[in-house]
Amino acid sequence: MNPQQHTALIKSLATELGFSFCGISKAGFLEGEAPKVEEWLRRGYQGKMGYLENHFDKRLDPTKLVPGAKSVVSLLYNYYPEKDQATDGNYKLAKYAYGQDYHHVIKDKLKVFMNQIQAKIGAVEGRVFVDSAPVHERAWAAKSGLGWIGKNSLLLNRQMGSFFFLAELIIDLELEPDGPMKDYCGTCTACQDACPTDAISEAYVVDGSKCISYLTIELKESIPPEFKGKMENWAFGCDICQDVCPWNRFSTPHNEPAFQPQGWEDFSAQDWEEMTQEVFSKVFKKSAVKRTKYEGLKRNISFLKNNT
């Protein structure tokens, strides 16, 4: 088979495995992204996420991450739920954390994907990634035509909005690259206007240190007092900039059983406030919510309760 046939086969396999979109880029240095990432770090927008300062070269050049890499296969996997569980008067979880931890669910699919490629094509070497290494995921997805980077810094897709996970195969197989698409944000500033902590004061640039997702998940110390009354009851993550994005009117519910809520969906505010370690460990056993740990979730809920 030639690169064109290999590309068609890989896109067909991606569809069979439940991925919504698959795009291809030629592996190489992301020259245009380097100054943007450097400036973002220089401003301190990474907050306490020191790991984002590491492996700068690998983040921008996948051939340093996977020697011999020729192609980056970017994938989108839908997680938009049938029912939005975020209700006024109760604590809220970001939609991506409703079900089982996506890292494990999608990683398993990627391993099957890689095995199928090797079975159909032969000796193909590479690695699979889902938010698990210094891969500049959004840049690669945009480069491969899966969408464009929106003003909220997330990848936006014209057919399905932004409620999806990104994943990649970086492989040593020559494929036909797709081209990037244009920016369709236009003059819209919905995400900037809606952010309660002013984390998107500049279009296309998010100050991570002010983002509610960072404050409730990544930040391990106390939430700074300047965010009192601004968190809108988000206890783990935040969907505000996505919920208001006009492109998300095209979101349709996923059909992944593993992403269904795992037993917390009927919790009252009192249930959240009185949650024990035992309940947390049982309900969030396979969930991404484990990332903040029991103490972190209780810290978030306490901050919200006392500073609404």
Report on this model:
The chain folds into 2 domains: 3-82 and 96-171, no CATH class; 190-306, no CATH class. 33% of the residues lie in helices and 11% in strands. The relative contact order is 0.17. It contains 12 helices and 8 strands.
Average pLDDT rating: 94
Order of helices and strands: HEHHHEEHEHEEEHHEHHHH
Domain count = 2
Helical fraction equals 25-40%
What fraction of residues sit in β-strands? Answer: 5-15%
| Number of helices, where a helix is a run of at least 4 consecutive DSSP H or I residues | 12
Q: Count the E strands.
A: 8
Query: How far is the N terminus from the C terminus?
Result: 61 Å
Poorly predicted tracts of residues: none
Helices and strands: which structural class? alpha+beta
Report strand order across the widest sheet.
1-2-7-4
Gyration radius, rounded: 20 Å
C-alpha geometry: globular
The profile of the biggest β sheet is: 4 strands, antiparallel
Summarize the structure.
This protein is 33% helix and 11% strand. With 308 residues, it is α+β, with helices and mostly antiparallel strands.
List the keywords.
308 residues, alpha+beta, 2 domains, four-stranded antiparallel β-sheet, two-stranded parallel sheet, 11% strand, globular, oxidoreductase, QueG_DUF1730, EC 1.17.99.6, cytoplasm
